[in-house]
């Protein structure tokens, strides 16, 4: 619900939940990517209907991100390395959520919608870096792309969500495809519970996109999610 309200699909949240309950690392990436594809596709449709979608800008990021997400998805990391990498991602995610909750206090972050001014020459390079991280960790990359776009004042919050959603969807497909092609994970690693998990996440996304498009975000929910991610990061990094 929350992630779709800002144009994300929730991969870092799924990873946090799976880390807390002790899901095996080899199952985490394909599960998160599968959920990502479903929710990002729905979120993309919702923000496109609302006219917060720019195919040219999204395409510029994807030119660099898709091949790198495919490569990243095909790399099998040692369990300890994967846990450390995802732990760092979750720490970054928690920081981003807290920042998002208080973003209005930063003058450089656009509050109202502004014209999209992403530099086309630099977008593929940013996309490539984010794409590799998304493939390696099992995220769609939105948790990295959105802060960059907002902090650089390249777009307003809703336009940023309209960029992030299709970016996440395509990168998730690329990451999952790369993993399947390279044998990093097989279809069998996608759990039998994938269908009900997708249904539950989709129900949340229906409400979340409505909140994101027409209502204010809930700061308490943001901080709660940040706290959950912090717990998962501490668990994965072995800081307890």
What secondary-structure arrangement, pairings included, does this model have?
Blueprint: H1 2-5, H2 11-21, H3 25-49, H4 55-73, H5 79-101, H6 123-137, H7 142-151, H8 157-182, H9 194-214, H10 219-237
Key attributes of the depicted protein:
single chain, 240 residues, mainly alpha, globular
What features would you describe in this structure?
The protein has 240 residues and is mainly α. 72% of the residues lie in helices and 0% in strands. It is built from 10 helices and no strands. The radius of gyration is 16 Å and the shape is globular. It starts with a helix and ends with a helix.
Mean pLDDT over the full residue set: 83
Question: Could you describe the largest sheet, including whether it forms a barrel?
Answer: none
The percent of residues in helical segments reads over 70%
Approximate strand percentage: under 5%
- Report the oligomer: single chain
Low-confidence stretches: none
Q: Work out the helix count.
A: 10
Question: How would you concisely characterize the structure shown here?
Answer:
By secondary structure, this protein is mainly alpha-helical. Helix content is 72%, strand content 0%.
